[in-house]
Structure formats: structure tokens, C-alpha cells
Design goal:
It contains 19 helices and 15 strands. By secondary structure, the chain is of the alpha/beta class. β11, α14 and β12 form a beta-alpha-beta unit. α16 crosses α17. The longest helix is centred in the C-terminal third of the chain and has 17 residues. It is globular. The N and C termini lie far apart (about 75 Å).
């Protein structure tokens, strides 16, 4: 007599996961992958299926937090007080709530917090001092770090200076990536005190300080505190430092010389004299010999004679490991062919290069269109280039469509993918010649972009012509690629009949 197949357990039973037809649900890695690509509502539903699946769903649901408020509500309901409202505990915390808090807090890996308005009534994500006191002085003895497995923090101070100091209780030794964005001026003493309170982070890898304080009368007080903090960061790989005067190069040198593994460095130099910048940058090759990425923003102080020249960046040519270089300034910079070739020899691994005025304002100093021929042979592995094209008085500008005689007939290498151009005003009759020139320089289709694209540049008439250049460029590349072979299409492109051409393509 054949044995009967046992019936399946009732739907929702814990025994269901043990059956052969649902054995796949017993693979935690698969369940985790499913929840990682699901929304929060799906994870919340999964949290109440059963104990095993629920634990995985909660891990995913609480892994990344965009505010600290929901987590603190577990300890005690938060209540808004005052105007504008700040959050305070409605009741005292108790050991039972602390146990529940720990159950969820251990799951958090990424914490982002913005103290700006959260709801239309103007309530803020600002915590009261009472909350901070409860978290630091009133927690049970068996509670260690509030977020013991936290890896990354993105903390934005937008409306209240005290929010910067409120970050301290949530920092744990496990943090590897720290981003501080200060959009509300906190003042140098508070920033220095905050930096001195970060001593419990021993092995941070990535740190970004976007501070609104400018190094004028008392801002230099931040630099020693930052140097003390970074002195113990032997594992630091990337750092974005607050703006400073190059004359403070001794303190800044203390910052960058400590982490010997530093690979990425972003600086904002508040420049007064060119000699100050040159003298400071001369110290970097000896301190950061392993740098792969560097960004330097030359911010000119008012009523100073600073002018960005090739000599200002010449010290960086001593760092031969660079793969990404970004140079910004209020004015822009001009380069000749010999200087570009010198940069290419110094940076043989360079993949991304940006040389432009900060904000891409019109009528700044820049490069002639023909300078694009100089970059191709100088940087054979270049993938992305951002430059400012200055047309001068040429109307229309007709750059040579053939490469200079000393260069072979080839444009950028096969890995080149993005050309970002900012430029001075372009007359209408120059649109198609410029598009044909760019199509010759690049040879194969690339992503041609212009600063001024997107919402911020929609109403910028100065960039309207450059967007027409991109349209004509894309048409020409389609013709050369065999997508359209009719010679009349090419004639229409040069004649400016782009709308008709687009319809026919």
C-alpha cells in the first residue's frame, strides 16, 4: 500500500519553510537579496512573517537611516517643544526600552541626519539637550556604543549649531566614513571642541568636512584640532578639508603628513598671493607621495592680487601617481601646448582631468578650441576631460579640422568617454563649425556635456548655443557611424536645419 503524501502545513506556519517545495526560503542569503531590492513597505511586511525571515527583513529595513528620530522614538516618544520645534523625550527612558533600542540600533550601518525642516509646519530635526543627556549620562551600564556597528555617517547642520555637537553620542569606533556638512555657521570654538571629541574613532577611512567657517580672524583654531584628530588616522584614504589660508601651511602639513596611506585629497585654498599657494603646494609631494586623486579650489580673497597661473599647479607635477586632477578657480587658467605636454609626462596614469573656473561663469580665462588637439596625445589613457573654452574675438571660431602637423591623425584614445565643456558666448553661425570640430577631435561617439545643462541652466541663454552644438554633434556622429548615410543630411546639419534633420533621422 502506497504511503500518502503528507499535507502541506498551513500557510504562515513556521513548518512551511521546512517543506521541500519551499526549501529555497530557508536560504538566508537569497532572502536578504530579495529584501535588498524591495521597498520599505515590503520589508515591513516581511518582518512579521516569522522569526527567521523577520530578522532578515529588519536588518535590511534598519540598515540605512535617513534620520535619527525614528530610532530614538523606540527609547521614548519624542515630543516637539518650542518654536521652531525641537525634539525632546515625552517620558523618561527605562531598561526595557533600552533593550528594545539595542535590538534595532545594532542593525544600523549608515546614518544620515539633516536638522532642517522635516514637515511643512517648520518642525526641525533638532534634538534637545535633555535628549543628549539621556543618551550619554543616563544609559544603563550594560549599553556600550549606541550604534555599535555603524559604518558611515552623513551629518548635515542646516538650522542649529548645536546639531554638530549632538553627533558625538552616535559615533562609535566602527565608523569608517564620516561626512560633516555645515551649512549653518557653527563658529570656530564649537568646531574645534567637536573635533577634539572625535578621539574614539581610531581607524577612519574617508572623511569630508564641508564647513562654512572661513579662515579669517579666528578660523585657524580649527586647524590644530583637525590635525590632532587626523594624527591617529593611519588608515585614512580620502580627506576633504575645510578651506584655509596657504599661509597656515605648517598646520595643514601636520594634517596631511600623518595618514601615510592618503590617496584622495580635496583642498580649498583661500588665496591672497600666488607665492603662498606655490609654497604650500610644494610641500604636498613629500607628504602625499601616494595620492591618486587631488582637487584644489583656489578661492580668491577680496582685494588681493592673486592670479592662477601654471606655476601655481607646477608643484603637483611631482606627484606621478595621480589618476584624477581637478583644478577650480574664480578666474580660470590658460595653458599653452608645452605646458599641457608637460602635464601629460608628469601624470602618465591620468584618467580624469578638470580645468575650469569655479561655477563656469562666462568670459573667464580659458583655452582656445584648438587646445583639444594637445590633450589627446599628451594623455593616452584619459577618460574624462572638463575644460573651459575661450573663443576670444573669433566670430565665427573656425578651429582647424585637421590635427597639427606634429601629431598623427588620431583623437582621444578608445577609453575616452566624456568631454565637459564650458565656454564663452558662441554666435549662432559658429554652432555647426564647432560641432564638426568636436566630432573630428573625438572620432568615436562620446558623452558631450556642458556646464549649464540641467535645471540650473535651462534659462541660461549663454549655454543655449552650446546645447545646439551638442545636438549637431550627435547628428554628425550618427551620420559618420552609418546610422544615416544621405549626404543631404550632412548638408542640412552644416546649414543649421537641425529640426528637419532630427525628424528625418
Amino acid at each position: 500500500m502506497e504511503s500518502e503524501t503528507p499535507p502541506l502545513p498551513p500557510l504562515g506556519s513556521d513548518d512551511l519553510i521546512q517543506t521541500q517545495s519551499h526549501r529555497v526560503l530557508a536560504i538566508p542569503e537569497l532572502i536578504r537579496n530579495i529584501f535588498q531590492y524591495s521597498g520599505n513597505s515590503d520589508c515591513a511586511s516581511g518582518a512579521i512573517v516569522n522569526k527567521e525571515i523577520g530578522a532578515i527583513a529588519l536588518d535590511v529595513l534598519w540598515r540605512e537611516m535617513d534620520s535619527i528620530i525614528p530610532l530614538l522614538n523606540i527609547l521614548s516618544p519624542l515630543w516637539p517643544e518650542g518654536l521652531p520645534s525641537i525634539w525632546t523625550f515625552h517620558n523618561d527612558t527605562n531598561p526595557l526600552n533600552w533593550a528594545r533600542f539595542q535590538e534595532y540600533a545594532r542593525r544600523v550601518r549608515v546614518l544620515a541626519h539633516d536638522d532642517g525642516p522635516e514637515v511643512p509646519d517648520g518642525s526641525l530635526n533638532v534634538l534637545s539637550q535633555e535628549v543628549i543627556t539621556q543618551l550619554t549620562l543616563c544609559k544603563p551600564a550594560n549599553v556600550g556604543a549606541l550604534l555599535p556597528n555603524l559604518k558611515a555617517i552623513d551629518w548635515i547642520v542646516r538650522s542649529n549649531a548645536s546639531t554638530l555637537w549632538h553627533l558625538i553620542p552616535f559615533i562609535s569606533p566602527s565608523v569608517k566614513h564620516l561626512v560633516i556638512r555645515e551649512e549653518f555657521p557653527c563658529g570656530t570654538p564649537l568646531i574645534a571642541r567637536f573635533l577634539d571629541g572625535l578621539s574614539n574613532i581610531p581607524d577612519i577611512r574617508f572623511i569630508e568636512f564641508h564647513l562654512s567657517t572661513r579662515p579669517k580672524s579666528d578660523a585657524s583654531g580649527c586647524i590644530p584640532s583637525l590635525a590632532r584628530f587626523l594624527a591617529n588616522q593611519d588608515q585614512l584614504l580620502a580627506a576633504t578639508l575645510p578651506s584655509f589660508r596657504p599661509s597656515e601651511h605648517r598646520s595643514i602639513s601636520d594634517i596631511v603628513k600623518a595618514p601615510h596611506k592618503l590617496e584622495c585629497l580635496d583642498l580649498v585654498l583661500v588665496a591672497g598671493q600666488s607665492e603662498e599657494c606655490i609654497n604650500f603646494l610644494k610641500t604636498l609631494p613629500g607628504l602625499c607621495s601616494n595620492l591618486k586623486e587631488i582637487g584644489v579650489d583656489f578661492l580668491k580673497r577680496e582685494n588681493t592680487p592673486f592670479t592662477l597661473t601654471f606655476d601655481c599647479i607646477l608643484p603637483l607635477l611631482e606627484i606621478h601617481t595621480l589618476e584624477t586632477v581637478e583644478i577650480l578657480s574664480d578666474q580660470g587658467m590658460t595653458l599653452d601646448e608645452a605646458q599641457i605636454r608637460q602635464m601629460g609626462k608628469a601624470w602618465p596614469r591620468l584618467c580624469r582631468l578638470a580645468l575650469w573656473p569655479d561655477g563656469f561663469q562666462m568670459n573667464k580665462v580659458g583655452l582656445p578650441p584648438s587646445a583639444l588637439w594637445w590633450f589627446a596625445p599628451s594623455f593616452p589613457v584619459l577618460e574624462d576631460l572638463a575644460v573651459y573654452i575661450h573663443l576670444g574675438g573669433q566670430h565665427p571660431p573656425l578651429p582647424h579640422l585637421q590635427p597639427p602637423p606634429q601629431y598623427p591623425w588620431r583623437a582621444f584614445g578608445p577609453n575616452f568617454r566624456t568631454l565637459n565643456i564650458g565656454g564663452s558666448r558662441l554666435p549662432n553661425q559658429s554652432v555647426n563649425p564647432m560641432a564638426e570640430f568636436l566630432s573630428t577631435v573625438t572620432q568615436s561617439p562620446i558623452n558631450l556635456t556642458f556646464d549649464g545643462d540641467g535645471e540650473s541652466g535651462v534659462e541660461n541663454r549663454d549655454y543655449y548655443q552650446w546645447r545646439k552644438v551638442r545636438e549637431a554633434y550627435e547628428m554628425l556622429m550618427r551620420i559618420r557611424g552609418g546610422v544615416a548615410t544621405n549626404a543631404q543630411l550632412y548638408i542640412n546639419a552644416l546649414a543649421g536645419d537641425n529640426e528637419a534633420l532630427r525628424q528625418r533621422l
